[in-house]
Amino acid sequence: MTSGDRPDRHTEPRTESNTGQPVDAAGTGGPAGTGGVDTLAYPISPDYVKSWTPVSAVCELIANALDEDPDATVGWADGVLTIADDGPGIPEEGMILGHSTKTMQQIGQFGEGKKLACLVLARSPEIGAVRCETAGYGFTPTVERRRLLEGLIPSRSGKGAEVLVYHLHRNDRSRGTVFTVACTRKLAEEAIGRFRALSEPDYIRPAAPGACVLTGTPGRVWIGGLLVSTTPGLLASYDLPLDDKGLQNRDRTVIEAGAMRDAVRAILAASDDAAVVDRFATHALAGGKLREPEQFFMAVTGPRPRAAWRSWARAHLPANAFYAGSRQEEAVLDLQDMDYTAVTASGLPGYQEQVLMTLLGVEVARVRQQRHYERNHDRTTWVPDRDLSTAERDILDAAKALVCRVIGPFALDRVRVYSDSQESPCTDGFYTPRTGDVAVHRDVLADRHRTLSVLFHEAAHRVRHRGGGRWIPSPDYSDRSRGFEHMLTEFGGLLLGLLADIADGGTLPKPATPPTPAPGGNRRTVRLTSADDPAVPVSRRELAHLLIDRLPHALTRGGFTDENDLVASTAVRPVYWRLLTRPRPAGFRRQQGVSTAWDYDKVALLAEAVGVHPPVAWLASNLCEGPLHGRRRDRWGRPGRWVKNVRDHVDRACADLEALGGAYATHVPAVRALADGTTPAPTGDDSWQAPARALIALERQRLRLDGDEQSG
Questions:
Q1: Band of the pLDDT at 362, cuts 50, 70, 90?
Q2: Percent over 70 (pLDDT), the chain
Q3: Among candidates 667, 678, 586, 581, which has minimal Cα distance to 624?
């Protein structure tokens, strides 16, 4: 039978006659009349693998055919099941027990499957004649009583042993294998029904970690499309990849519960399918229980799966939702009085409920209550600008301008005046790292010298913390720190150098351009945004403006109530959005927490939420970190190749730019030249960030942000 003669799946098969020549029993392997053999005996007892059923054996033959040929055909007609593939056939090596071309990660690596299947079918009273036609020869397996090695081995019974015997014959096939098995239609349909490839025309074997199947009866578990078990109580069915022999035994059934549990959890944890999330979220919040393999919430760590859960919550849960932990009755009553809504997953263990609520973005009652009060509690009494006297305003303005002129425009941003504060009650001023603001006690403004001293001191905190010009950010910026002392020392050296220059006929640096007050706003409460801070690399500043300018359109298009709602829908920590829209100088490092928006997938989710291409956002935010990341501080900005971690991220961004094509792809060589160290990238110089800036310009043009209309 040629490959074109194979029966279609689930169609009437064609019958093939034996076209091979008979062989004799002389044992020399030649055709009839030349001394060839007509049988091949395997010393395998018929009692071996008693757990195998005829259905298991037939499934083994079908699985082997599909392994050789994904288009293999299987059909039953007139009491005969036919399994045909267009593979290379079964060579001599395939008749040897223990020989296999399969890998250590696949079932069948010992070459037992076909032999055991033939043994089971030959001994079964439910099965009739079994016949195989393959390239160059054919055989019929039977169980017979034989004396091994022509009786040279003594037999205890004197009658010999029952063994598996192949009756061999020649044929003229050039490739392909056809098995015919005489069996009932019920047995054939049961075996065929275990294969998704035979019942689903578009079926493709899943890649790791596998696929969650929501259709049909739940609880079924396939491996490579072959049904191997049914587990009652599961909420869905699962198709595992055929790449782990630990999941199966020789008859292709799941035998290790822990391995199946890990496989199911891996599938669910990696899924960002909205239908999968909906099924499990709805079930859990309705109080339903989950069997152990499907208690997977703690394993959901990927950015996109987490975003899928957060998107579901946004669509199905009230905005003011909370859940109650243990002994939080008072907080629950308080929140309910403020029109908050409680949600529960009572069918889950306590720790699983907590993790699920975190995935959904639902806070525990006590935390939600605390956040509510924190937003309404102010620990500092600020003095409005209008309440300052003219003399106080003049001293403050002159002192701030002088400090920024001597040190740089990044030295100070917004300076606020207070009369009382719990932040730092025993000082004349303080610096707020969270906002970059400097606060000055009102009493200080009575004296020019004290005002200059306080602003100079707080400017040292700010520059040591945020960086600017030739100074790199450092976490060592507080009063009792060596870094702060070094900063004051450098400021002192800078001032002495300026005095020496002036003595030689020089002048002070040009004054910094003050920020433009917002229309109708108070001129002294205006603060430079991070997108305008000269200490921040220019590519980060331009990215921040791109995202901020695009934000209103994204809010309208996505139906978000505000910026926080948009960020929450991605399940990415808000600090990432703040780092993109309120950027920090290059080299900024927190003592704890996230310092840069480094994770490509998280940046991609935020960029996609506002309609910006992910590689543009990632490069604009992180290209400036290339000469710094992974190096000792004393080697920052030195020439040379960037570290591997940076190059890997850059390669991913470049691959995405190439996929976008057009003008985006033209900037890939320049970006790669930076990562390879071909193009220098010194600190304190933004000119080498030109590729990132050009990509931002392309985005602004694509999104029509500088015109009258934005694209979708």
A1: confident
A2: 83
A3: 586
